[in-house]
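One thing: can you check what follows?
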Amino acid sequence: MCGFLRAPLGALFLLGVLTGAPAVAGDIYRWSDESGAVHFGDRPPGDADLLQAGPRSASGGGFRAIEWIPDGDTIHLADGTKVRVIGINAPEVAHRGEPAEPGGPEAQRFLRALLDGKEVRLEVGPEATDKYGRTLAHVLTRDGTDVAVRLLQAGRAFATVHPPNITRAEHFFAVERRARRAGRGIWALSHYAVKPAAEAEDLRNSFRRLRGRVATVTPKRKYTYLGFASGLQAYLLRDRAAAFRAAGKGPQALLGRTVVVRGWVHTRDGRPRLRLRHPLQIESVQ
């Protein structure tokens, strides 16, 4: 299918009514170009609006009422379902005696305002639940608003990748990049700027973007480890290496290069570590 359609939106829906089927097989987006012309199509730029969703392999049913929004990426429905929005992570709000992360309360307020008085529909991911029993889903309102996209556009969350729930990952990262370049929301805060990999040990237990030189590549039985000159260690499953190579970011190709990686920093055996699940976590290679 072509990247954009000039036909009026009403014509698309009229065709669906006349044929008894959607006008297109996949998602339909709307966006404006630099001249202000409006386009519709299934190959959107990063700031497009989803107007019509194509068929999905799994669905959470019809539209459902919201009971509570505890933070910027979680929704509790009136039927008791707890939903974790796929593809994003918002900074934490204060809980269990821990202080809020920078931007956490703002993300929660943004999501509450976005969904005030609205019902939502779920598009459940291939991996349907997380370890906490929450439903993993894309969340959409009746007007076609993709909740994750709105949060990313406003700079109230950052894009994440957790295979196999990655069907919209490239789109989400593109939206995030636009917000980052514009300095919206969390991207105006130094907390979320790229930090030297040498600071990783002091940044554990949080999402970070780190820059450093890959000094060693060590394949082991299960994982391949990238050792940074600073001491940071990034690692990926060996059976994921092919996907990284296909993206031009294979472990051996990174040896001796300076890269920006992103993810959650944790510590093992006193060493800061970061797990790589997808090539999108490597933002740049120099």
Summary: The longest strand covers residues 206-219.
